[in-house]
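RETRY 2/3 - previous attempt timed out on the joint model. Re-submitting the same 598-residue input unchanged.
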Amino acid sequence: MFINAAISLTRPSGFSLEVAMAIKPRGVTALYGPSGSGKTTVLKLLAGLEDGSRGDQINISSDGNIWQDASHFVPPHKRHVGYVFQQPQLFPHLDVRGNLAYASKRAGSQPSAPLAQVCDWLGINHLLTASPAKLSGGEAQRVAIARVLLSGARCLLMDEPLGSVDHAARLQILPYLDRLRRLLDIPIVYVSHGLDEITYLADEVYMLEQGRIKAFGTVFELASSLTLNSQEGDVAAAVVEARVEHHDQAFGLTCLRLDSQSIYVSRCAQSPGTPIRLRIPARDVSLALQVPAQTSILNVLEGVISDIEPLSASPSLLVRVQVGGQYILSRITRKSLQQLELQPGKAVYVQIKTVALLSDLSQQVAISP
Amino acid sequence: MLPDPDSQALWLTLQLALTTTGLLMLVGTPLAWWLARTKSLGRVILEPIVALPVVLPPTVLGFYLLLAMAPNGVLGQWWFSITGERLAFTFNALVIGSIFYSLPFYVQPLQVAFENIQQGLLDAAATLGAGPADRFFSVVVPLSRRGFVTAICLAFAHTVGEFGIVLMIGGNIPGETRVLSIALFDHVESLQYEAAHRLALGLLIFSFALLALVYGLNRHWQMRLAARH
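RETRY 2/3 succeeded.
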């Protein structure tokens, strides 16, 4: 399902929203931004749960069928979109099985995965006879996601699905979402103001601010974008994708392949060949002109400087280094810049002190002393 | 057990209460839903109108209804144009009067129950493919079960006990408008205290039993809900 939306609306409160989006038929499209940026409003408009008022221009269509324009409005129950709310919104008068059956009964002719498989995916087999009130926050949200999958939804809209659960439950749910992202052949629109969730799950990202699209691109493009990162200061970080190469039992490490080069991280559970996302903080990356000899730092990659940007409110600079087809950010001082005579096009060695495996957020893997 | 005129009155009262409650469910349920959900200004006007019978002396309501139901009144003419019959002092007049009189006792508990249903649950049901009527019967009704029981019992009991309006618009025609409360009044006026006692005590026990049922059911559901938590 392709979704196209062009929205221009103004609320009596003064809030205005001007966005145009094309949601790809597969993968996770994230709407990222601070609260009040309009991301939930966009999602509700896509679902048909909100409507504009006179004077607003809302054009939403899917696969060429008009969902909403000046003269049409398809109500939510006819759009076949699955909506995961911040709160699980399980029906309190039904048990877990009843909640799931509520969805599958109304799936109609829409194909959906079988109950047993969905329960497996989300690990809720043991909860089927429980009442929603007895579930933990994380369990309830997993049931809510299963319910949406059983409704025959042709697109998933997720409105901060981890917003109402505690940190432990977030870590518990994220891998399930990651698995769904790979398994499902339908678009997922994911609203969040959590950078970790976005870098972990998203393929494409719309950054929203005050009802406008501030930036759009793949998660890798945006994560390595200097202009966006230069305002982040200390938390500036690049996101890259690598593949599991092999596990090194003797040292308790896993070797990953980043294009043609290797990166070592603490041993992870994924099997060889699995794609894995890494988050590399700019402050933990240093640059050298020669291969550093006799260093305890394990990960040294070859790259070429592509651009340099001063950090706002800081004497440091952000350097973007191309490694293979991807980018790594390094935060250095002006003094280093001058001493090493760094400039775009120059070949450098990138020393990475810490690497966080995004597919295992509970572990912020630190390699080296 | 009861002398003939009294059992006739009992039968008539039950018919009136059942008809009124049935019609109230049809009219009052959508009204309560609308009042619970609307943001429109109409609510500011409609809510006090629905609540009026709670504070208004029944005879006042009865008086205006009588005027409206008279052959040249608005309701009377409308009724005549549809059925070709007069309205005032008939069983049908009692039904219409009782609907007005018992409206708040049906609508208010239900409105409170409806207001307590989170919009999020309805949105969830909608995105799961449930249309408006489906959402109402599959989510709203089961979640406002207590509200429905309270509303139905209050409306029924109030119609059984109504006196002032019945006297104004129904009069005292045996088999047509002579309900229990009127029969009771007749017995007292003619100093037949024994007959009056039979009816009064009967109504007292009935009201008590009905309330005990409502509170019992509510308590039962509350405990079941608590057990789930």
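Chain A has nine helices and 20 strands. Closing ticket.
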